[in-house]
């Protein structure tokens, strides 16, 4: 796999990840996966601590810097309700192309092709409360492009690659999408590996959240004819009405930072 050139806006975030990885003797691709897990767990209220989290307190601060860098990047790139941006897809392609995991490399659908595909299916009548699915979602680009022009629908992303699912969850979270992401082989619908509900209460609270799915919830959701959630007008943080179905302001992300739970044992209690 040839090396993939990271777009300039994403390079500061890439540098945070690679510097941290090389300082601690870690694979940047694995750190990237852990960063996605960090984001998802931080926006999962009530979730138990991550038992597999291997980083110590000082290292957790670096992940918070990555989170801050990501939110600032998204705030600078998303200018209005019809904007969307996927830094994770580019970042993943760049990291994999430079690592020992090159055999797992993927090339995601270019942004302009995603926009073109959505425009080709555009109709004069815009519907809400419908299901829109992508059985090979990658980093979620097609779902984001669809959501930008058709807000108020229930998005379903599926992929056999867990990293792709994690990227899609995070991308849907910050874009104000409502839906679910399923990790499985979409050619075998009865198979279920993992799943996440994204922003299930966004219309009521205006706060982005993620909830882990189990197999029973996955099976029940497949039998529903339309969106399992009512997509309705939401309120901004100040109580003022916003445009119907528009994503919440990025500032609401700061509300959930206190929900992040990680191993807080003193460093000397960890096994060397």
From TrEMBL:
GO molecular-function term, one example from the UniProt record: site-specific DNA-methyltransferase (adenine-specific) activity
Superkingdom to which the source organism belongs: Bacteria
Keywords, ordered alphabetically: Methyltransferase, Restriction system, S-adenosyl-L-methionine, Transferase
Limits of the DNA methylase adenine-specific domain: 85-187
Pfam families: N6_Mtase (PF02384)
Catalytic activity: a 2'-deoxyadenosine in DNA + S-adenosyl-L-methionine = an N(6)-methyl-2'-deoxyadenosine in DNA + S-adenosyl-L-homocysteine + H(+)
Region (Disordered): 236-272
InterPro entries: DNA_Adenine_Mtase (IPR051537), DNA_methylase_A-5 (IPR003356), SAM-dependent_MTases_sf (IPR029063)
Keyword flag Transferase: yes
Biased composition (Basic and acidic residues): 258-272
Entry EC no(s): 2.1.1.72
A GO biological-process term: DNA restriction-modification system
Family: Belongs to the N(4)/N(6)-methyltransferase family.
Protein name: site-specific DNA-methyltransferase (adenine-specific)
């Amino acid at each position: 796999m040839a090396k993939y050139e990271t777009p300039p806006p994403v390079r500061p975030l890439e540098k945070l990840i690679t510097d941290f990885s090389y300082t601690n003797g870690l694979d940047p691709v694995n750190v990237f996966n852990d960063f996605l897990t960090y984001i998802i767990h931080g926006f999962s209220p009530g979730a138990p601590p991550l038992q597999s989290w291997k980083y110590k307190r000082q290292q957790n601060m670096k992940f918070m810097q990555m989170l801050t860098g990501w939110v600032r990047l998204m705030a600078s790139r998303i200018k209005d309700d019809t904007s969307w941006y996927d830094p994770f897809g580019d970042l993943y392609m760049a990291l994999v192309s430079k690592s020992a995991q090159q055999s797992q490399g993927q090339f995601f659908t270019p942004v302009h092709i995603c926009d073109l595909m959505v425009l080709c299916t555009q109709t004069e009548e815009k519907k809400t409360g419908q299901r829109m699915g992508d059985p090979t979602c990658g980093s979620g680009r097609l779902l984001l492009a669809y959501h930008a022009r058709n807000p108020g629908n229930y998005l379903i992303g599926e992929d056999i690659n867990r990293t792709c699912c994690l990227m899609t969850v995070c991308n849907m979270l910050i874009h104000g999408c409502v839906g679910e992401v399923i990790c499985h082989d979409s050619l075998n619908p009865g198979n279920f590996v993992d799943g996440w509900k994204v922003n299930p209460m966004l219309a009521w609270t205006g706060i982005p959240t993620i909830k882990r799915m189990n197999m029973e919830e996955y099976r029940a959701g497949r039998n529903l004819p339309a969106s399992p959630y009512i997509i309705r007008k939401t309120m901004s943080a100040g109580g003022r009405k916003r445009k119907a179905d528009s994503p919440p302001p990025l500032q609401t992300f700061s509300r959930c930072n206190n929900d992040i739970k990680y191993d807080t044992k003193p460093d000397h209690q960890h096994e060397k």
